[in-house]
Amino acid sequence: MIDLIIDQRRKDLGGFEVGRVLPFHARRMVGPFIFFDHMGPAEFAPGFPRTVDVRPHPHIGLSTLSYLFEGSMTHRDSVGSEIVIRPGEVNWMTAGSGITHSERFEDLREHGGRMDGIQTWLALPTEQEEIDPRFSHHEGDNELPFYESGGLKARLVAGEAYGAKASVPVFSPTFYVHWEMETGTRADLPAEYSERAAYVAKGSVEVAGQTLKVGQMAVFAPGDTIVFEALEPSTVMLLGGEPLGPRFIEWNFVSSSKDRLEQAKADWRGGRMKLPDLDNGEFIPLPEPAPPANPMS
After folding, report:
1. E strand or H helix at 189
2. pLDDT of 293 above 80
3. 57 among annotated binding-site residues
């Protein structure tokens, strides 16, 4: 029933930590989900430095989905979008042939507070990897269906599940669900999609006789209904969909073609994806290739 349990790996992004879950060496993707970062949780005092912000950087071949439990972020991008995302809302950015964006913590810098959320990347189907870039923002129960019963609060963040459909314009069969569970609450994940996983963002749950703790993702075998029971107040993200086939990922780029990744890197280094007026031109540089291994070492 549980194929694999993945523990988050904490990474310092220069001011706050993220817990990286996907990609993982034993499991690169779950449905279209190819990247999964738990941002924080982190506490910020007013006036923290701007070096904590995520400066402009590029993407191709994917959509990014930002979703917060606490805090706020200001999104800006090269198609002209500028919006603050708050808890329970979705920022959906499709890079396609290429986009540049930044994420700034302007409200938190002014007032201080807590940041906690998930950012994930979804690979695009091969025939849509080069579509025009675009952005949309989604909020409210009409766009992100909400359900509450007993000790369970559930929001459909993207895709289709439990007879509901979110307004987020996904490109392949996908589901992404946010559960808030009180202690002792039981809930099911049906066998609707061939690839499914669950990530515990807070608390702990029992699944198939095993305990999943905060920072762990369980990847499930297809074909069975998965039953969860909250061992304490818990936040669980359910995700998955249908597989897209192999993808290459390097830095901020995703593609079914290695040659396309090389072209994107050359375009970024050559300034062909940069807009000089986006956040004062403070762009993140492409990392230099690692030196070859010393055969004598």
Report:
1. strand 186-189
2. no
3. yes
Q: Is the pLDDT of residue 295 over 60?
A: no
DSSP summary character for residue 150: T
- In angstroms, rounded to a whole number, what is the distance separating the alpha carbons of residues 247 and 164? 29
Residue 103 annotated as binding site? yes
Cα three-residue angle 284-289-293, rounded to 5 degrees: 150
Is residue 40 within 8 Å of 17, Cβ to Cβ? yes
**Exposure string over 20-54, b if 16+ CB within 10 A, otherwise e:** bbbbbeebbbbbbbbbbbbbbbbebeeeeeeebbb
Superfamily holding 2-241: Jelly Rolls (2.60.120.10)
**Contact criterion met (CB below 8 Å) for 31 and 195:** yes
Q: pTM of the prediction?
A: 0.94
101 is in an annotated binding site: yes
Contact 71, 108 (CB under 8 A): yes
pLDDT at residue number 281: 72
Domain parsing of the chain, residue ranges: 2-241
- Residue 180 annotated as part of some ligand binding site: no
Residue 242, pLDDT score: 97
pLDDT at 289: 64
Q: What angle do CA 160, 163, 169 make, to 5 degrees?
A: 25
d(CA 105, CA 50): 8
